[in-house]
Specification:
heterotrimer, A alpha+beta, B alpha/beta, C alpha+beta, A: alpha+beta, SH3 type barrels, five-stranded antiparallel sheet, 5 strands, elongated, C: alpha+beta, 60s Ribosomal Protein L30, Chain: A, Phosphoribosyl-aminoimidazole Synthetase, Chain A, domain 2, 2 domains, four-stranded mixed sheet, about 25% strand, globular
Chain lengths: ~90, ~375, ~325
């Protein structure tokens, strides 16, 4: 459920009422006006997660990088798998 | 696209697959709660790459699939009513009601407008002096802030021609209902990432502990899903019945407070009927007393025909993870995406449609 | 707005108003020796085997980035002739106009038809115009029928497809469908995406000049997209189609729109694209040749015909995952979940 994708917040349109605060979000060249009421902390050039026209969260760049780094730097399990017995563990 | 492509990296995905193969020692049933996760697992061909001990079970997290038939019928009734336009997400318009779907009602002169956002429906109501613009507000927690916001925007603009037909459901009660089922066979959950973006994951700690079921909050891209599965397998193997957050780039432990405040300014928790599962107490959102004027059911005096007709569709068992789409005698025969008998065949994230569309090749 | 500015039922009466309309908006801009005769039909001097096709065009909005219903009506039929392995020569043009259509819009559409014909080297030699009451049409419906002479080296047929044949697409996918969707109220998003509506007969004929019967099949993946046409090819050839998921060309902006709306670019419409199934021994030659034409500069090999999984299209990704690509069921709708 809940298709939500990250896009870059390029401009913020100020509105006195936070319920109507919007910004332009760029999805690789396709842009859409997105409501920013749920992400008052969002700044221009942040990436925001957009679902049905509203931004639900600012993407945490540090967390994204850390996750990828963790996977990249974990030991290579393929070597362990080279032992054929490992592949057919009795269940 | 940034934050998507990196999480589709085949090198990282393979590494995680190796890790899963190396870790697993016995058969585990892992349920991905969200239909978007099902869609991604099948679309990326991940199910076949997992060790045979790891069995992915497809959860109930598809708003289209769990919306009861009588609500579809109410939406159909409204769309056929003079002066009323029903606005809906594209997903909902092909779901069969008792007599017809919204799309079929449109062919009979019904007024239906597909929108990308509930806020677009509010704008539409503001532009046109229609008697009634009704937004078919389906969804899980992820969609609730948007639907609540639509009501707040309509209120602030003084719109009296805007209302919601609400069918909002909640994830944790459904997970609990699955675990409480005497036939339950689920060992671990991948929790729905975007639901947790809104709600956080504190509610899952007691579930994980009480039912000895590890829960991993998981994203939607191949690397996310594989890491979620790898974590779940590791936790199961080491009897670690806790909650982990794989999707920290958009999920905080407490979720998004601003979004929760918006939801609870408009909605309150109430009982909901789930298609194929039945009524689950306190499993959905209903409009609060102060916003009842935005409730299409009251506004238009809709009849609540509480009759979910049975036609041999086993949607309930499929959504509880007790049966696979291929176990259904109608699968691919009487029931196809073009002529669906039940909702899981309609929505592209419904387990049946995912199996039908992205099924594995029949190798000869 | 005065009556003179729009189409009225009188324009379809066959009388003076009809004549004025035809003279000014149709015979004028489309003038050629065949049409100028203004007879009940055209007499053509054509030899040898012929290719013959017809198509009707309905689109909203009538004008969209990259084209309009007029250019679409010419390109669509020209491309269908080309897919038969023929030189497009002559078209018929049938217009069904709805009362209230702006004459300026009709003028724009006819100018666009004229331009598209000129560019494609085809002539409109016969036609018809009818007017329907307000509410019975969608502004304008267009039917074009085309006729062309076969390329002497063409030997196109799904029965000629063999295991190992290579599958190419002439450009990036889904541009037309996403353009039309971006113009629809309710889904409004801004994008620099334009429809790919264009004639593709030049590269196709050059391919036949060069490779002859090594070109086994040509198809024009309009409605239903590339995925649907590949399913048809798999079913008709009783072979499987194996796709390389990473090689399928989609422009970044189109991909962005597809991600946002939850659409599969393989199932979105195109209007200036062709799929070629060719003998794998001439793969490199075909690519080098097609790259020289603007209409097929982004040509890419996306897969091959295989003996396993007959009748199915299976996409393989770099992770080692496989999925069956379905035929488009009904309409592809934007999804939230």
């Amino acid at each position: 459920m809940c298709l939500a994708i990250p896009g870059k917040l390029t401009t913020i349109v100020p509105d006195e009422d936070p319920v109507f605060r919007t910004g332009t979000v760029d999805f690789d060249g396709v842009t859409r006006q997105v409501n920013l009421a749920m992400v008052p902390e969002a700044k221009e050039n942040d990436y925001v997660l957009v679902h049905v026209g509203i931004a639900l969260q600012v993407v945490d760049e540090e967390e994204a990088r850390m996750l990828l780094d963790t996977i990249r730097t974990t030991e290579d399990w393929a070597e362990e798998l080279a032992d054929p017995d490992e592949l057919n563990q009795p269940s | 696209m940034k934050y998507l492509d990196e999480f589709r990296d085949p090198v990282l995905a393979k590494k995680l697959l190796d890790q899963i193969h190396a870790t697993v020692t016995q058969r585990w049933m892992i349920m991905e709660v969200c239909g978007g996760q099902t869609h991604s697992l099948v679309k990326n061909g991940i199910l076949d790459l997992l060790p045979e001990e790891v069995v992915m079970v497809h959860g109930p997290g598809c708003p289209v699939c769990v919306t009861p038939m009588n609500l579809i019928d109410q939406a159909v009734q409204l769309s056929l009513r003079e002066g009323v336009t029903v606005c809906s997400f594209g997903d909902m318009v092909r779901v069969p009601g008792k007599e017809m779907s919204l799309l079929e009602a449109k062919a009979q002169g019904g007024s239906l407008k597909m929108v990308y956002s509930p806020l677009d429906a509010v704008q539409y109501a503001a532009q046109d002096a229609f008697e009634g613009v009704v937004f078919f507000a389906v969804g899980f927690e992820t969609t609730a802030p948007a639907n609540a916001l639509a009501v707040l925007q309509a209120e602030k603009q003084g719109l009296t021609n805007f209302s919601l037909l609400v069918s909002h459901v909640l994830v944790p009660p459904a997970m609990q209902a699955i675990l409480d089922d005497p036939f339950n066979n689920i060992n671990a959950f991948l929790a729905a990432g975007h639901v947790c973006t809104v709600m956080g994951f504190r509610a899952y700690y007691p579930i994980a502990q009480q039912y000895e079921t590890p829960i991993v909050v998981t994203g939607f891209e191949p690397v996310d899903l594989l890491q979620g599965i790898a974590r779940a397998v590791t936790m199961l193997e080491s009897k670690d019945y806790t909650v982990e957050n794989q999707y920290a780039r958009v999920v905080l432990e407490d979720g998004n407070r601003a979004a929760q405040d918006t939801i609870f300014s408009v909605f309150e928790v109430g009982d909901r009927e789930w298609r194929g599962i039945g009524t689950i107490p306190e499993s959905g959102y209903v409009l609060k007393e102060t916003y009842r004027s935005f409730d299409a059911v009251e506004k238009f005096g809709l009849l609540n025909r509480d009759t979910d007709t049975q036609n041999g569709c086993i949607a309930g068992a499929i959504m509880k993870g007790q049966q696979k789409p291929k176990d259904c005698p109608h699968f691919g025969k009487g029931c196809t995406p073009v002529n669906p008998m039940g909702a899981p065949m309609v929505s592209s994230e419904g387990a049946c449609a995912a199996y039908y569309n992205y099924a594995q090749p029949t190798v000869v | 707005m005065s009556r003179q500015d729009t189409i009225t039922l009188g324009h379809g009466s066959g009388g003076t108003l009809t004549h004025e309309l035809l003279d000014r908006y149709i015979f004028g801009p489309l003038s050629n020796p065949h049409l100028d005769r203004q007879h009940d039909g055209a007499v053509l001097d054509l030899r040898g085997p012929l290719a013959f096709t017809t198509d009707s065009f309905v689109v909203q909005p009538l004008f969209f980035p990259g084209g309009d219903i007029g250019s679409l009506a010419v390109h669509g039929t020209v491309n269908d002739i080309a897919m038969c392995g023929a030189y497009p020569k002559y078209l018929s043009l049938s217009l069904i106009l709805e009362e209230g259509l702006l004459l300026t819009d009709l003028e724009r559409i006819l100018q666009s038809i004229q331009k598209a014909c000129l560019e494609a080297g085809v002539q409109i030699v016969t036609g018809d115009t009818k007017v329907v009451e307000k509410g019975s049409g969608d502004g304008i419906f267009i039917n074009t029928t085309g006729i062309g002479t076969m390329h002497p080296k063409a030997h196109i047929g799904v029965e000629r497809i063999k295991e190992g044949d290579a599958i190419l697409v002439s450009g990036t996918l889904a541009n037309h469908g996403i353009t039309i969707m971006s113009q629809r109220e309710g889904l409004s998003f801004a994008s620099p995406i334009e429809s790919d509506s264009r004639a593709v007969h030049e590269p196709v004929l050059a391919l036949l000049d060069e490779l002859g019967d090594a070109v086994k099949l040509l198809r024009d993946p309009t409605r239903g997209g590339v995925g649907t046409v590949l399913n048809e090819i798999a079913q008709q050839s009783k072979l499987g189609v194996q796709l390389d998921a990473e090689s399928i060309p989609v422009a970044p902006t189109v991909n962005g729109a597809c991600e946002m709306l939850g659409l599969d670019p393989l199932l979105v419409a195109n209007e200036g694209l062709f799929i070629g199934v060719i003998d794998q021994s001439v793969k490199e030659k075909a690519i080098d040749l097609l790259k020289r034409f603007p209409a097929s500069a982004a040509v890419t090999f996306i897969g091959q015909m295989v003996a396993s999984h007959p009748g199915q299209v299976v996409s393989h990704n770099a992770m080692g995952g496989k999925r069956v690509v379905p035929m488009l069921p009904g309409e592809q709708l934007p999804r939230i979940c």
